[in-house]
Amino acid sequence: MEIKQGHHKFYVGESEEQFDAEITYQDLGDNVLVVDHTFVDPSLRGKGIARKLVDVVIDKARAESKVIDPVCPYVKEVMNHDQSTHDVLKK
Question: pTM higher than 0.90, yes or no?
Fold first, then answer.
């Protein structure tokens, strides 16, 4: 499974338009990434793909010295419960 970067998103699939899983974000320009949506096709659920997508966005935030404002309920739950992500969790 290859995670690809698109325009304000990371995804798994053939293209940005034909994806099997995705996570989207907005870059507010003030060192904040607002992560607003996560989707995994039902045929791929239960394989940890959503978490891998979250991890890629976290890596991006760390590399760019940004924090994440998790608007997406899934991302918010992951980040609130995983202490290792709190360095990039918007306070």
Answer: yes
